[in-house]
Design brief:
The structure holds three protein chains of three kinds. Chain A is mostly helical. In chain A, 71% of the residues lie in helices and 0% in strands. In chain A, helix 1 packs antiparallel against helix 12, helix 3 packs across helix 9 and helix 9 runs antiparallel to helix 12. The radius of gyration of chain A is 24 Å and the shape is flat. Chain B is globular and about 75 Å long. Chain C is an alpha/beta fold. In chain C, helix 9 crosses helix 10 and helix 17 packs antiparallel against helix 18. The longest helix of chain C is centred in the first third of the chain and has 19 residues. Chain C is globular and about 75 Å long. The chains are: A mainly alpha, B mainly alpha, C alpha/beta. Chain B: InterPro entries: ABC_transporter_permease, MetI-like, MetI-like_sf. Chain B: Keywords: Cell membrane, Membrane, Transmembrane, Transmembrane helix, Transport. Chain B: It is found in: Cell membrane. Chain B: It is a multi-pass membrane protein.
Chain lengths: 287, 302, 410
């Protein structure tokens, strides 16, 4: 719409019209965006017989909870859920702790080879890590990290350090430095300035970082598959994949299991939503 | 120079030296960790790329042979084309839709938290699962055909989207945009909150519509954000894999292959790790160059 | 410390002592979590074996089928593979070539085993003149029909020749204007596994018998004609679009009553029955053409890893899996046994459809056992896809495939 084509209008009417238009657009986009998820949900409520049908049915003819119950009860699913919880939580803590300390230094302090360190991180974000899997497996074997959830955590943390350092650096840069300088004048040590002033100010940013880190490791498949043999140490993505057979797959069951797996992530997102938005605003976007 | 000043300078220098030591204490643990578990494997993979690598036993040094092979491999060209199309379509699509979504959820209207969650939902869903769902949606008897043929009557015949390379690529691009638009929205939305409302309000008083304000005033102000988003999305798009692996497996006849799916085939299906590694490192060079060009482009435009 | 606690600790120490004296055998397989195969293996087969061999502990590990190769290769590179694995028969020569597998020719009792199993499946274990595994289960494809749809079209029994097959398809086709609403048959997809029986039954070939070249075989007039027949049927709407990878899948189409027949392995029946309880199904061998009625041999081998530290114990478990008891037990889950002596076993004889599969197995060929088969298969399938999407003529596509396969075989 160009200005020339817009006839002069009463601003109040304009506002009302544009508000209605906005809601229409909001709803239309919401429908488009949620269609695939609604389809997943409806498939998860269908019995096996009704998974494939044409025309596709959004509302299952005979809705059933059976897929959710079966998924949860099958073969230690709850246990795998806990394994994933443990792995993702430890990864989150490790990643945030390591990235926050590094990011603070990159944002606030000068040190030799600073740019070299930083560009190394950036560069390695651009190499696809899929091929590392064999060398990583060999290292894991040497360091006795195979077949252990903590072993997975070690690799997950390493893999997420660059992105999170990048993200948090931007945030620390955006906090005004005066408070820290004043504290230093008052005789606080650097460590105290970092832990007592900078970190508390960065809490929302750390929250954002935590959600991304949690999400990243919650979904990880390849390393978990390669490193873990013990059935008791399986994580959720593997457990879900094992519902799919060579010749057959029970889609209702797989979708129900995937939806169960999404719950913690949604809870985390909803819980942190306010914090989340505030932070990305303040820091995440500086390059 | 007075002694007092000299002392001050000396103190500051010591401070700097102390700073450096403190900074290294903060940076090195993470960097070492990263070096052992990521850089070392990367170097190892780089070494492999110069070999005809044997999983057991001695590997044969072949020099640049794996890299030269890339230039004569017709499938690499197909992968390059598909990767470029996917990157271009999804980056533009995600930024456009993500920006519109951000403008919408930035309005001070009720229910915005709900809409934000709905738009963000695809971001937090698993790639594997949504790729499977999109197979169902784009199946010839799936929902997309049903809507286009039986509901909107745009097409006369159902289409086998995923078996025709061109339409398969369209379907995968739609998945990419759908999955990522919410991420772009969150970042734009956050950045928009940083823009002082006095700027936009003044324009609205002058009679500009919210869309005009967003496009002509807000969007240019968000240039650094757009750069950050573009670089992150570029890295992501060039490393896309699961959606291709699950939805088409690179087929029919390698026509929907992208770099990583082809690398995966070479390395894990044909067990040619040397060639797979060479593909991976060539891709990295490509991504680095594109990121540098993007940064320059944004700086010149500023 | 009170008494019960002390007993508990002592008890667990004792248990630990016993456990460490045991030999652990790890066994990788690809049965999915919910499958009856998995349930029977872990609740019956392994406990039975452990009861008979108290000094051996068998740990079965599930690996997703699609990622099995990746997982296996990484483990082989790290020399931490399993002791035993159940692998697809076409992977055996490849893993043998990699040096991951133990040659079993001299293992105790191998010669006896060799004479007890079907020769077809056994042949898939040969690499470089030696045996690198033992067949564990076998299968093939036959035709699957919906008898009610046949009856409705006035067909009393499934076709046995290619000519009959075609007239059957014509009778089964139903149209609503120009739109075909019912297909007589569905070839599930443009893949080697599904097309090979049609090529072989019509007298075509993929390579020479020694698997050294494809030119003159894969693009021979007979092979071209065989594939052309399928293309013609597809274009005439006699077989469903699933052969080009579009339309409803073969099972879904049968379930929906749109396809009267299809082809598949013995796993199809139980799955179809579970998903579509109202569907009735009968089986028949492939119709015979110029080459006879020839299907393709599938199945799995069990292989012993070179890196295994418990080869003797692992071999014991392997031999147990090939015992009559274990083979019959696994047969109840849909796996066809490989022991020749079981053909006349009452369970097998009384089985509703194993008879047809066993009959077809006597006239089934194995895919070329070659370390580069995976690559060969991709090259051929790629061209099949070009053919059925209408991009290339059969001759042009198969010429190209033959040339590419030759380069791999060199």
């Amino acid at each position: 719409m160009t200005r020339a084509m817009t006839p002069p209008r009463n601003p109040k009417t304009t506002r009302r019209v544009s508000r209605i238009l906005m809601y229409v657009l909001l709803v239309v986009l919401a429908i488009c965006m949620s269609l695939p998820m609604i389809y997943t949900l409806s498939t998860a409520f269908k019995g096996t017989v009704f998974v494939f049908e044409y025309p596709p049915q959004f509302i299952p003819k005979e809705p059933t909870f059976a897929n959710f119950v079966n998924a949860w009860q099958s073969n230690n699913f709850g246990h795998y859920f806990l394994n994933s919880m443990f792995t993702a939580s430890m990864t989150t803590i490790g990643t945030v702790a390591i990235a926050a300390t590094g990011a603070y230094a990159f944002a606030r302090l000068n040190f030799p080879l600073k740019n070299v360190f930083f560009w190394t991180y950036l560069l390695f974000m651009m190499i696809p890590g899929m091929l590392y899997i064999i060398p990583q497996f060999l290292i894991a074997k040497k360091l006795h990290l195979l077949n252990s959830l903590m072993g997975l955590v070690v690799f997950y943390v390493a893999g997420s350090v660059p992105f999170h350092t990048f993200l948090l650096r931007g945030f620390f840069q955006s906090i005004p430095g005066e408070i820290e300088e004043a504290a230093q004048m008052d005789g606080a040590s650097r460590w105290q300035v970092f832990t007592r002033i900078a970190l508390p100010l960065a809490m929302p940013a750390l929250g954002t970082s935590a959600i991304f880190a949690f999400l990243g490791s919650w979904d990880e498949f390849t390393l978990a598959l390669t490193f873990i043999n013990d059935e008791n140490l399986r994580t959720l993505p593997i457990a879900i994949r094992l519902f799919q057979g060579q010749h057959t797959a029970q889609w209702g069951l797989i979708f129900a299991a995937s939806l169960i797996a999404m719950v913690p992530v949604v809870v985390a997102y909803v819980g942190f939503q306010n914090l989340f938005i505030k932070t990305v605003n303040e820091g995440g976007v500086k390059t | 120079m007075t002694t007092a000043r000299a002392m001050q300078v000396q103190k500051r220098r010591q401070g700097r030296r102390g700073d450096a030591l403190f900074a290294l204490l903060l940076v090195l643990p993470g960097f070492l960790w990263f070096s052992i578990f990521n850089i070392y494997p990367a170097v190892y993979a780089f070494w492999i790329s110069f070999h005809k690598w044997a999983i057991l036993g001695e590997s044969e040094w072949v020099g640049l042979q794996n890299y030269l092979r890339i230039f004569s491999d017709p499938i690499i060209l197909i992968a390059l084309r598909n990767t470029a199309v996917y990157a271009l379509a999804t980056i533009i699509g995600q930024i456009a839709i993500g920006f519109v979504l951000a403008v919408l959820v930035n309005q001070k209207l009720p229910f915005m938290k709900f809409f934000r969650l709905v738009y963000y939902f695809p971001v937090i869903s698993s790639w594997v699962v949504v790729s499977l769902i999109f197979i169902f949606l784009f199946n010839s008897e799936g929902l997309v055909n049903f809507i286009l043929v039986d509901f909107l009557h745009i097409m006369a015949e159902p289409k086998a989207w995923l078996t025709d390379p061109a339409t398969a690529l369209v379907a995968i691009c739609i998945l990419g945009i759908w999955k990522g638009a919410g991420w772009v929205m969150v970042i734009y939305h956050a950045a928009m909150q940083g823009i002082s409302s006095s700027v936009t309000e003044a324009a609205e008083v002058d009679g500009a519509s919210p869309w005009q304000v967003s496009w002509f005033i807000v969007f240019p102000m968000l240039k650094p954000t757009t750069l950050f988003i573009t670089i992150m999305l570029t890295i992501g798009a060039f490393q896309s894999f699961i959606q291709f692996y699950i939805m088409t497996g690179g087929g029919p006849n390698n026509q929907t292959e992208v770099f990583l799916s082809y690398m995966f085939t070479q390395a894990f299906k044909y067990l040619d790790f040397g060639y797979g590694s060479a593909i991976a490192f060539s891709l990295a060079v490509l991504v680095v160059s594109i990121s540098l060009i993007q940064q320059r482009f944004f700086k010149e435009g500023a | 410390m009170n008494a019960p606690v002390r007993t508990l600790i002592l008890g667990s120490l004792l248990l630990a002592g016993v456990a460490s004296a045991k030999t652990t055998v790890t066994f990788w397989h690809t049965y999915n979590t919910d499958s009856t195969e998995n349930k029977i293996l872990t609740s019956k087969i392994i406990p039975d074996f452990e009861k008979k061999n108290p000094d051996i502990d068998v740990v079965a590990q599930q690996i997703p089928y699609t990622e099995f190769r990746q997982k296996m290769l990484t483990s082989v590179a790290g020399e931490t593979g399993p002791d035993l694995a159940r692998i697809d028969i076409i992977w055996t020569p490849e893993f043998a070539q990699l040096g991951a597998l133990e040659k079993v020719d001299d293992m105790p009792g191998f010669k006896g085993l060799k004479s007890q199993v079907f020769p077809g499946p056994l042949s898939t274990n040969v690499y470089d003149g030696g045996y690198y595994g033992v067949p564990l289960d076998t299968n093939t494809q036959v035709l699957i029909w919906n008898p009610e749809m046949l009856k409705a079209a006035g067909i009393s029994k499934p076709p046995t020749t290619m000519a009959q097959f075609k007239t059957t398809l014509e009778k089964l086709q139903k149209k609503d204007g120009n739109k075909i609403t019912q297909y007589g048959f569905a070839v599930p997809g443009p893949y080697n596994w599904f097309l090979l029986p049609w090529i072989w039954s019509n007298g075509g070939e993929i390579t020479d018998p020694k698997v050294t070249k494809a030119t003159g075989y894969l693009n021979s007039p007979k092979t071209v004609a065989a594939v052309q027949t399928l293309v013609d049927w597809y274009k005439a709407g006699l077989i469903s679009p699933s052969i080009a990878g579009s339309g409803l899948g073969s099972w879904e189409g049968m379930g929906a009553g749109k396809y009267a027949g299809s082809q598949d392995g013995p796993w199809a029946f139980p799955s179809l029955q579970a998903q579509y309880p109202k569907l009735s199904v009968t089986h028949s061998p492939f119709p015979s053409g110029a080459g006879g009625s020839v299907s393709v041999v599938g199945g799995e081998n069990i292989v012993l890893f070179k890196s295994s530290k418990n080869k003797a114990a692992a071999w014991k478990f392997l031999r147990y899996l090939l015992s009559k008891d274990a083979q019959i037990t696994m047969a109840t889950t849909g796996q066809i046994p490989v022991l020749k002596s079981l053909v006349n076993d009452p369970y097998i004889k009384g089985h509703p459809y194993y008879g047809v599969y066993l009959k077809q197995l006597s006239k089934a060929k194995a895919r070329p056992p070659h370390p580069a088969y995976t690559k060969m298969e991709d090259l051929i399938q790629g061209q099949f896809q070009e053919i059925f999407s209408g991009k290339k003529t059969v001759q042009a596509a198969l010429d190209e495939a033959a040339q590419k396969v030759d380069a791999v075989l060199k």
